[in-house]
Every structure is written in C-alpha cells, then in structure tokens.
Amino acid sequence: MWYLNFSSHEVLNTFRSNLMKKFECLYEGTAKQGNPTLLNEIYTELYITESESGEISNEHEVRQIETQSRRAATEDTPIKCSDIFRALPGQDKPISTVLTKGVAGIGKTVSVQKFILDWAEEKENQDVQLIFPLPFRELNLMKDKTLSLSDLLQVFFPETKEMKIYSERYKVLFIFDGLDECRLSLDFQSDVRLCDVSESASVDVLLTNLIVGNLLPSALIWITSRPAAADLVPSECVHRVTEVRGFNEPQKEEYFRKRISDQRFAKKIIKHLKSSRSLFIMCHIPVFCWISAAVLEKMLSRAESGEIPKTLTQMYTHFLILQTNIKHEKDYEKNVTDEDMILKLGKLAFQQLVKGNVIFYEEDLRECGIDVTEASVYSGLCTQIFREEFGLYQGKVFCFVHLSIQEHLAALYVHLSCTNHNRNVFDQINKLSLRSKVRDLFRQNSSDVSLFALHQRAVNEALQSKNGHLDLFLRFLLGLSLKSHQILLQGLMKQKRSSSDSNEKTVEYIKKKIRTIDSPEKSINLFHCLNELGDHSLEFNPLESVEAPAPGLQTATKTVAFANKNIDLQVKFLLRLPLATREIDI
C-alpha cells in the first residue's frame, strides 16, 4: 500500500471538494463557454460489458458500432461503471488494473467523470481514499520533463504537497484517460526500473513503471482507450478488460427525454431518428445523440422549411451550419470569414486524419495557418482545453468535439479544395520535389479537376486503408457532392458545378468495386456510400443460408445479394467467427 499521513482531514476534504467542482458539470460541445449542465441531472447510464482482450479490431469505429448494434445481449456480461474493480461471482483474483475500451465519443471519459464524481460525493467506492485522474492529452504536454511521481502529482494536484508518505494505509487509484491520444513513448520492455516515488525519471518511464507495478504495486490503475490502441499495454499487465458500448435501445430514448426539455420535441426527434436505420444506429454514440438533438431541436422548434436530415452527411452539414450561425449570433470576430476558417480547420482535420491524430497542439494549428486565438472563434467545432492551474507546464490542447466531426470537416475541405480552388488534395500527399509541385500547379491551371477523379481517388485511398480510418470520411465526401448540399453550403461555394454526371460515374465505379473486392467491411461501407449519394438501386439482402466451416476452422462464407433491374450480383464474404457455429449477421 501507499502509506500516507494527512496533517488533518481538511486536506482530504479539500481534495474531494476540488475534484467535485471539476467533474460535477458535463460540457457538451460549447457548453463550457455557456451554461454547463450538471452531470447528475443529464447522465444516462451507459451499457458497459466485461470483454476479452482478444484481437484488436481493424475496422472503422462506425462499422464496429453497427456490428455491436446487432450483437445479442446474452453474449455479454454487463457491468456497472462503479463496479469495474469488483470481482464478479465466481472470480477469485483481485482486480487492480482495468483497461476500458470503446470507440470515439462512446462515453469513456464521461464514465470516468461519473466514477470520480460519485466518489467525491461519497456515494461509491469509499474504500478508495485517493483518486488521481491523469488524462494522456495533458500528460503529453510534459513529455520532455524529468521529475518524480510525487512531483508529477503536485503539478496536477497541489494539495498533495500536504501529503506525506508515512504510516497510515490509503488505497490509491490512478486514472489514465485516452491511451489512444498518448504521444509518449511507452516502452514496457525497458530495463529501467523505478520503485521510489521520489526518484526522478521521464514521464513515460514513470507511467510504465506505475502500470507494470514497480511503482506503488498496490495502487489501482484504470486506463481508457479506443480499440485500435488498446494493445499498447501488455495483456499481462491488465486484470480486467471492459468495453463501453454506448447507449442500448432504451438508453437512447432516455437520453433524448433528459436532453430535450419539451417532451413533444423529444418524441418527434426519437420518431425521426428511428425512421433512419443508419442514424438510429449512430445514436449508440452519445456525442452523435448530442449532435442530433442540437440540429433537430432547432429545426423542429423553428418550423424551418428545410428538409430534415435523413443521412449522416446531411446531419453533420446541418450541425456545421448551426455552429457557424451561433458564431455570428454571438458577434465573434467578423474579419474571419466562414470559408477561410472552415478551410483552415478542414485542412487541420484532413492532415491529422491522414496521420491518425485526434488531438493537436499549437504547432499543429500554426502549420495550417490557424492563429490560436482564431481557433476559439469556432469553439463549437474545435474544443480548447486550457488548465490555468497547470503551473510551469501551461499549454493548450485542441481536438474536435468528436472524431466524426473531424472526418466531416476533412471531407468538406477536400470537396471545397476541388470545387473552389481546382485542387485534388490527394495529389499533394507526400509530394516532395519542387518539380512535382510545379508540374501539379501547371496541371491545375491548365484543366479542371473533375469531381469524379477526386471521388475515384478517395475510394481507392479508403479501400487501401488497413484500419478503415477513411471509411466515414469517404461517406461524407461523396454525400457533399449532392445538389442538396450545394444549396446548404452556397455561402462557401465560389463556383457552382454540375455534379450529376460525376456522381453517376462515381456510382458505377463503386458498384464495380463491390463486385471485385472481398472485404465484407469495405463492401458494406461502399454500400453506405451509395446511400449517401442518393443511389438506392442496389437492394442489400443478407441471405439466410450460411456455409458452415469445417470443424476447427474459424471462418465461414456468407453470400450477400445485391440486386437491381439490370444487375444480379452476388458477393461472397469471408467472415472470421469466434465460434464455428455462430450465426452471421451483416
């Protein structure tokens, strides 16, 4: 155990009180700059399950959500967030290190927030005397520092200066939120061994020794991560893996009833979302529920004449318009035009999406020509996190409210670069030589870049991605080419282009790809792309029959039929199954 002695109970009470003040409010989007909502008033219980560590999924997180939405509840072991360190019936070994995984925006950070708030309010886990929340996005700011664990805690929690290692036992919990955002070099194979909390080392060495158990071996450790980064921590260091699955069906409706004060609007919104399968599936993600509530509440309350969003692209485009209108209503800097700021944020979104980054720092913004003070103008899209109490290690961290907003802005940047500036940004990736840049400039000035050429390149780039990180971006990019979006975005469109011919070519190109590729995830994403393009000629019908694999094999084939008036196309998907007899549902 970590032995501590407090000069008085006032120190511990102050510590609890400070955590309570920090975590009692839920900041959705721009709420931190407006009227924050008390977490306990709006909090909706999330569906969390005990999970096997298993293989890391390489499919896009939206595809994982779609898969989870069809998974039978009987396959999972639900667990309450407050119970993650408690053994289930039949489990004998104590649980001291928990890894919680979940896709972006699914509620991992809110779960952490609720856990801490319940502890600070003395409602849950009172056997734990101290909780130290240390988000990776803030630890990143100290990656070049050398200090001891005691010093590190004093930076984040000045009250710990009054805490002395002495003779009384206290159970301590460290929470490391956002492993996928980590820019530290976590080397679990390193021979550097630390056992003394007063011994100085780099922050990454402190963390690895804490997680491995060399430092404070009796401390509890809670790590959260998106699935793709979950294997950064060796499985032997983790005693339990849990998965935040977001909202189940009843919880989705509960969220909207709590979020929307007028229950008439809440019912209308729920009814509309249920009418679109793809939108209602996305409502597993709490952040998407917030986006939908913001857009639909405004449209329904003002009886706007515009068509209510029915696709993902439409919903996100309306959200963008909503946020830019809020900017003007608040009379922010008017010398920053919508197109200029959106293109800069879009460039940031695209460049960081290609790199796989979801958080950015001031140098990342400057590379895209964004003044840090300008970024706050669009705070609904780019969230600024600034800790004034960070002492010597002050710094600003930026991220988009949700990964899907980053993907939408990236797609909008690529689309506007083509329509407004005659550029195919994919041609500029990895361009190193001056000669190639001059050649591209001459090519751009000599002929138009067609939307079809852009779409064709984007489809190919998405299909080549191993982890599907461009799948949702592709859906957005194709959806933005519809005439309905040109009308919505007319304030950003410098040149009007007829996209009907290009879209017809893109539709045929996608159908051709569906015939030839053998990846189920990529084929189904292309099907969603057709939906975003407004093409419903293919009817997606999973057949009931499954070709059972031979004994011992972990694969089976599933025939999926795509049919229209002129095409009778069957694609066989090779699916990996955890059990040979498991039913397949695409």
TrEMBL record:
Keywords: ATP-binding, Cytoplasm, Leucine-rich repeat, Nucleotide-binding, Repeat. Gene3D superfamilies: P-loop containing nucleotide triphosphate hydrolases. It is found in: Cytoplasm. Coiled coil: none annotated. GO terms for molecular function: ATP binding. Its main location: cytoplasm. InterPro entries: NACHT-assoc, NACHT_NTPase, NLR, NLRP_HD2, NOD1/2_WH, P-loop_NTPase. Residues 96-229 form the NACHT domain. The keyword Repeat applies. GO terms for cellular component: cytoplasm. This is NACHT domain-containing protein. It comes from Sinocyclocheilus grahami (Dianchi golden-line fish).
